[in-house]
Write a structure and sequence with these properties.
Blueprint (H helix, E strand, L loop, with lengths): L1 E2 L2 E2 L8 H8 L6 E8 L5 H15 L4 E6 L2 H15 L4 E4 L4 E4 L4 E6 L13 E4 L7 H8 L8 E2 L2 E2 L1 E7 L7 H7 E2 L2 E2 L2 E2 L15 E6 L5 H7 L3 H8 L4 H7 L11 E2 L6 H4 E2 L9 E6 L6 E7 L5 E7 L6 H15 L8 E6 L13 H9 L3 E4 L3 H13 L9 E4 L3 H10 L1 E2 L15 H16 L23
Length: 471
């Protein structure tokens, strides 16, 4: 309900995150809210309770609550609402809706059947487990929030509500709702209200939830529940990040390639050593090329300084952007202080009469590219060994700068093995294999092949011939 222009909740006792979810004020007449995050955080309860309250406040209106499949909507949505609406609304099985005493009808339907209601005008909609459905469902339902009954006493109650677990950044909930064209699209309601006017669509809002937000309730219902989840998935960074902590960008569809990656150990803010060369790894993916800038230190650490992971970019534009970025990051560094590594597949000709990828790269940067044909698994193992081994001073031999979002997502589990194939090969085409391949080319040649020279950098004299042991 609205008191003095601010939403106040009165039907249950919300936890702090649920309370913040309910307190989000409208920017315009239509307000969209996403409760996103960890298992058991109270996301569904917040959405269901809010939609129920909206139905009570808008006589004779219509709303929809949906989930992807018939079985799931009946088991979860319908049972939830039967408990919440007991004594408040009556379930009409033949009509598939709850009818409130004030005449409001809340339709409960699988999301793949919602269109059978035609052009029904709505006061509110709720999509449970929105990560399961296509963007079209959300996009179309937003256009239905126009039921005249949604305005009471001059106050609009139009709401689009969703809950979801943490998703990959390629999922529409992130790429179309939270972000759009790599810019903030929705307001994170846990940030200062002044940040809302900076996003592209201030009508879109979200609240990140974690399992810990609702731990008191979970423990009262099932003692030790949270710890049991953690124990069952010990070492699975992606699972914990996405389904406990509720972060975006992680994938749990298969086994992580780099299960030994631990953000608390391997993430760092890294400053390039001016006395060492910067090692550029290139992957010429057709749609998603990738570049990583690395250094291999005198104590045998492979450090990833930066990444560039564009989409749908020409080869020439890739080189131009990479050159521009490194001039910004390291303006004092001479062109001769870079070394390049790529896959031997880059020797293939990109067109019938054109130069190869590597030839284009060498021509543009005036460089000589190191490449070799090697088994993917061999390169993966090199990086794994760096992650688990320590230097003499006790620090991991691998680290990645916190600015490398795509690579960190990949290492955290988005780059994974499928369980459906007999041959163990990482899944390709999800936007993470390219950056991992670029890193692998550097690791295999620098670490495994002992190509890293030692000594201080000297443009005139080049590098000394001494090398580091691989392990």
């Amino acid at each position: 309900m609205i008191i003095d222009g601010a939403p106040v909740y009165k039907t249950y006792k919300p936890n702090p995150k649920q309370e913040r979810f309910h307190q989000i004020p409208p920017w315009n007449p239509r307000l969209y809210k996403l409760a996103v995050g960890g298992l058991g955080g109270g996301k569904s309860t917040a959405c269901e309770q809010e939609q129920a309250l909206i139905c009570m406040k808008t006589p004779d209106g219509k709303s929809i609550a949906c989930r992807k499949s018939v079985n799931r909507s009946e088991i979860s949505l319908l049972e939830d609402y039967k408990k919440i609406l007991q004594g408040v609304a009556t379930w009409k099985p033949s009509m598939k809706w709850f009818e409130f005493k004030n005449g409001h009808k809340l339709i409960v339907v699988p999301s793949d059947e919602w269109d059978r209601f035609g052009s029904t005008q709505l006061v509110s909609f709720y999509i449970q487990e929105a990560q399961e459905v296509e963007f079209q469902i959300f996009d179309t339902l937003t256009q239905r929030l126009r039921d005249p009954k949604g305005v009471v006493g001059g106050v609009p109650y139009y709401r689009g509500l969703m809950d979801a677990r943490g998703v990959k950044k390629k999922h529409w909930l992130y790429s179309e709702y939270v972000m759009r064209n790599d810019k903030p699209n929705a307001w994170n309601a846990l940030t200062d209200p002044s940040e809302r006017r900076k996003v592209q669509n201030p009508d879109y809002t979200y609240v990140p939830f974690s399992t810990y937000d609702n731990e008191e309730i979970l423990e009262s219902q099932s003692p030790g529940y949270v710890q049991q989840l953690l124990d069952a998935h010990k070492g699975n960074v992606a699972w914990v990040k996405m389904l406990i902590e509720g972060e975006f960008g992680f994938d749990v569809e298969g086994r992580a390639v780099y299960g030994s990656y631990k953000p608390e150990l391997h993430d760092a803010s890294i400053v390039a050593d001016p006395t060492l060369p910067i090692l550029r790894g290139w992957d010429f993916g057709y749609n998603r090329p990738a570049v990583v800038w690395c250094q291999y230190t005198r104590d045998g650490r492979l450090l990833v300084l930066r990444e560039y992971c564009p989409v749908g970019i020409s080869r020439r534009h890739l080189f131009e952007e990479a050159a521009s970025l490194q001039r910004t990051w390291w303006p004092e560094r001479h062109a001769s202080q870079y070394r390049d590594f790529a896959d031997i597949a880059g020797e293939q000709i990109t067109s019938a009469a054109g130069p190869t990828d590597i030839e284009e790269l060498e021509s543009f940067f005036g460089t000589s590219v190191e490449s070799k044909k090697a088994r993917i698994q061999d390169g993966i193992e090199v990086i794994r060994q760096l992650m688990i081994r320590l230097t003499r001073s006790g620090v991991p031999r691998f680290a990645v700068d916190v600015s490398c979002d795509t690579l960190r997502e990949a290492l955290g589990g988005a780059y994974h093995y499928t369980t459906e194939k007999t041959e163990e090969r990482p899944v390709k085409g999800l936007g993470y294999d390219d950056v991992c391949d670029a890193l692998r080319y550097v690791a295999q040649l620098i670490v495994e092949e002992d190509l890293q020279p030692g000594g201080r950098f000297d443009v005139r004299a080049g590098y000394r011939s001494s090398t580091f042991a691989a392990y």
